Amino acid sequence: MKIKEYFRHKLQTCHECYACYVSFKYRIQCLLSLRYFFYDLRIVKKSMFWGKNEQMELAQLRAKLLFYYHKIEKGLCMPGQHRLFALEVVPQIIHMMNSWKKSNFSVNDPIYQGALNSLQAYLTHLENQKLDPENKILPTVYSFLSNQCYFGDTADTPMLIEKEQLINSVSFSSLHHMYLARRSVRNFESKPVSQEILRHAVAAAQLSPSACNRQPCKVVAVSDESLRASLLAHQNGNTGFGHMAPLLLVVTANADHFFGAIERNQPYIDGGLFAMSLLYALEVHGLATCCLNWCVTPKTDSVVHQLLNLPKSHKIIMFIAVGYPHQQTKVPRSHRKALIDVLSFK
Fold first, then answer.
1. Which of 131, 145, 179, 213 is the most exposed place for a label (fewest CB within 10 A)?
2. Are the beta carbons of 254 and 200 closer than 8 angstroms?
3. Cα dihedral sign for 224, 229, 235, 239?
4. Separation of first and last alpha carbons in the chain
5. From edge to edge, which strands make up the β-sheet containing 217-222?
6. How many folded domains does the chain comprise?
């Protein structure tokens, strides 16, 4: 008998020793699993520190510009007495917009136009409210805007929403009915999902909140049968039904959109908000979905990034199986916890 088999036999015959062995083995496995965090750490270090790099890629420059000009948007919406604000923010916005043009990125991009629109609204606000009598920032803004090719309308910045729009836009009963109707389905028809419906659903999901409106999420829609099979082979929770879904969505969040370790969890927060909105948008189009969690090793994560030609900074949030449900489909009852276990008052 080999030595390894001998000791295994001895451990199995002594229950107490065997229990210690299992516990020790589990602890070693847990310690080894800590190396997975180094994989995430490398991505955070490479992607989530903006620094002072002048030659940023378009995606990162969009995120940084969104982050800063959203400060103006928020300032224009603040209640109470008007005051002079964004004295340090505005020069940074102008600097980034100049970098944008030097990089020959399109000035017709919605993000560039949004920054331009916000600066115009900011200028109008300061002039109308006479908030800068000492000309601390007005000349800088006016000089920059006067050299722009497009001087657009600022009537919709900030947007004015009536109380009735906020309160009565959707009834709670209708919303609750949709919540009850959305279930994780594991039985799909082979009918393909049209790209038009998917465009509508993703456009709706784009309205999800994100940190400083940076919108880091993307969706890769995979209908190719061979690629779907390859992707599902690397996911742990689709056995027996995954192959039936005619469409597989891969939801990602770009870590490049965040500026440091303090925001290390934000890709998953924004990604979760986006994914939930996407599920409901697909639901109202008559489609069934099943979220497929992305709990994998760094090696598997790297393989799938290569399969999809995704940059490492694009963190995979989840897969979503999508298709039309059969006329009658069984779903788990999925009991919910008692409300007292979820809600507390302080």
1. 179
2. no
3. positive
4. 65
5. 217-222, 247-254, 314-323, 288-293
6. 3
Residue 193 pLDDT exceeds 90: yes
Q: Is 0.90 surpassed by the pTM of this model?
A: no
Residue 72's domain comprises: 58-146
Burial label, 142 (beta-carbon count in 10 A; 0-12, 13-18, 19+)? middle
How many angstroms separate the CA atoms of 322 and 193, rounded?
8
Rounded to 5°, the CA angle 90-96-101 comes to 130
With beta carbons less than 8 A apart as the criterion, state whether 115 and 97 touch. yes
Instruction: Note whether residue 330 is domain-resident.
Output: no
Do 235 and 120 belong together in one domain? no
Give 219's DSSP letter.
E
C-alpha angle with apex 315: 298 to 192, nearest 5 degrees? 105
Residues 65, 112: contact at Cβ < 8 Å? yes
Please give the pLDDT value at position 104: 93
Of 299, 301, 327, whose CA–CA distance to 315 is shortest?
A: 301
